[in-house]
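ARCHIVE CARD
CATEGORY: sequence design from structure
SOURCE FIELD: tokenized fold
FIELD CONTENT:
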């Protein structure tokens, strides 16, 4: 609609102004195929004079201005809706992504796709529809030019079409470079994430500069690729107008020299065609910019397809509360051709404390991943209260699990928000928060802080010790009102004194929750009801601590740890 108003506004300019002079109007026939404009004014009995012409021009361009505003308004709304829906699709897709697929995914690509790539897709959206809009302008101007002077219009169209072939090779090169930039950005984001995660190690070992060199090399490659794209854009910008002018001048020369066309008629058509060619090159330019971000579009599409393909298989049964037992029946797990767990039969009764021990690589963590529903067995079954876990809605089951890992999960926020996971500070929630702190034996520490529960913990809990981080993690899981407590090497990174404190906390919770402990330090599992000894993916012994001491492998492990 903007293009139509612009075209009619231009149509009022030269032809009508040519007809107006001090003595009156010239014949409408001098306007050729555009003579319908003055005839229209005659039919509605509006006097055609200079004031009328200027008022009509003003009206058309005012309408164009109003439409231009609504165009920008609608585009802004659509762009934000578009980006909102892309982010929503990515967030939900990643949330439904299976754990098995996630651990094999490129973290740098996920990070880059969620951040930088979304903005590039937004730009791509804008470029595409700007190109479409310029295409509408081209259509409007060319249609009016054909009405005015078909012969001249045909020549300019042929010339304009020929000129567009010049930049086709540049477009192909632009698309290739765009895909390379997207790929390099994935690598850069992955390296950057690891630099932040391993900052302490890199700093303390003097490897920071070497790692920085790797980042800088990747940055240098992106710089050269971006520079090539910039040069291509500069070439396109430089040749666009000279090509337009060349086409126009040649068309005028042929029209006047060989077809003896009146120059006055050509001027109006020329104005329309000049706008058409400018719009055509604008359309080409925006399409080129669109191609420059096409790598991001392709990546986003592929990323969404991968999330969809890797979606976790889920059941329909809602799990409300643990009643009796959690079982593994002839369960096994293989990754590709590697067998990690074999024919595991294990029953865990409600409020029982089970410990899983074994040498590194024996399958301890994989066993816990099966019990928590993070992984599905490739053989056998996991049964929850006699129901196959594959038929249960995983989120409903996992919401009843408290998971404490070796590296405590601490968010850069207050203690209250870390424990309550951003619940509202209602009277009920504050009471639950304080109860969870007491159960985790950290209430006194928090109560004595200047801001108490509103104390900020810093990035990854940098403001508190390792033991305090673990206790806050335990408090978070207890705040959730869980049935299960899964502790995967939860104390292996702590000093002996802190480990003993955490162990005592766990012992105090004995009988209140179903506790599953994966431990390297055997001192933490001495009071477990049942200890499961794994070796090379097989259960080789089960029983309490005293019973397992009769097993040579377990006895050797105990002797090596000297406790």
């Amino acid at each position: 609609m903007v293009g139509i108003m612009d075209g009619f506004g231009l149509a009022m300019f030269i032809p009508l102004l040519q007809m107006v002079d001090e003595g009156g109007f010239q014949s409408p026939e001098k306007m050729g195929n555009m003579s319908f404009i003055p005839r229209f004014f005659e039919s509605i009995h509006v006097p055609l004079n200079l004031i009328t012409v200027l008022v009509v021009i003003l009206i058309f361009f005012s309408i164009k201005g109003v439409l231009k505003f609504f165009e920008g308004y609608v585009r802004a709304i659509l762009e934000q809706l578009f980006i909102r829906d892309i982010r929503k699709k990515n967030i939900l897709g990643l949330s439904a992504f299976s754990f098995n697929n996630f651990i094999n995914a490129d973290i740098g690509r996920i990070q880059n796709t969620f951040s930088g790539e979304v903005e590039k897709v937004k730009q791509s959206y804008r470029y595409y529809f700007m190109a479409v809009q310029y295409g509408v302008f081209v259509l409007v101007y060319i249609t009016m030019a054909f009405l005015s002077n078909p012969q001249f219009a045909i020549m300019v169209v042929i010339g304009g079409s020929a000129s567009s072939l010049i930049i086709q090779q540049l477009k192909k090169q632009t698309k290739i470079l765009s895909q390379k930039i997207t790929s390099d950005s994935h690598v850069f984001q992955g390296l950057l994430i690891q630099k932040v995660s391993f900052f302490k190690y890199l700093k303390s070992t003097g490897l920071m500069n070497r790692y920085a060199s790797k980042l800088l090399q990747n940055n240098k490659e992106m710089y050269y690729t971006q520079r090539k794209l910039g040069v291509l854009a500069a070439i396109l910008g430089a040749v666009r107008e000279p090509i337009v002018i060349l086409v126009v001048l040649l068309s005028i020369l042929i029209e006047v020299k060989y077809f003896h066309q009146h120059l006055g008629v050509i001027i109006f058509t020329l104005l329309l065609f000049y706008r058409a060619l400018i719009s055509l090159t604008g359309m080409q330019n925006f399409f080129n910019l669109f191609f420059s971000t096409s790598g991001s579009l392709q990546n986003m599409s592929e990323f969404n397809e991968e999330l969809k393909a890797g979606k976790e298989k889920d059941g329909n049964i809602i799990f409300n509360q643990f009643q009796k037992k959690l079982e593994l029946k002839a369960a096994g797990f293989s990754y590709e051709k590697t067998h990690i767990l074999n024919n595991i039969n294990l029953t865990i009764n409600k409020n029982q404390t089970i410990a899983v021990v074994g040498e590194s690589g024996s399958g301890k963590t994989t066993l816990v991943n099966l019990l928590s529903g993070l992984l599905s067995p490739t053989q056998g079954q996991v049964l929850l209260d006699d129901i196959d876990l594959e038929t249960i809605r995983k989120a409903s089951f996992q919401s009843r699990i408290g998971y404490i890992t070796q590296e405590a999960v601490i968010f850069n926020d207050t203690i209250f928000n870390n424990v309550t996971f951003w619940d509202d500070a209602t009277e009920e929630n504050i009471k639950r928060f304080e109860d969870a702190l007491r159960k985790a034996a950290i209430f006194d520490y928090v109560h004595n802080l200047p801001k108490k529960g509103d104390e900020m913990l810093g990035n990854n809990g940098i403001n508190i010790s390792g033991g305090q981080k673990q206790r806050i993690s335990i408090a978070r899981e207890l705040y959730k009102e869980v049935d299960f407590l899964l502790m995967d090497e939860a104390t292996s990174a702590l000093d002996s004194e802190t480990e003993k404190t955490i162990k005592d906390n766990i012992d105090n919770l004995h009988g209140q929750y179903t506790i599953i402990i994966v431990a390297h330090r055997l001192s933490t599992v001495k009071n477990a009801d049942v200890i499961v000894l794994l070796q090379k993916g097989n259960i080789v012994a089960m029983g309490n601590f005293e019973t397992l001491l009769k097993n040579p492998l377990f006895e050797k492990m105990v002797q090596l740890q000297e406790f």
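CARD ANNOTATION: Residues 106-297 form a domain with the ABC transporter transmembrane region fold fold (CATH 1.20.1560.10). The mean pLDDT is 81.
SHELF: design records, drawer C
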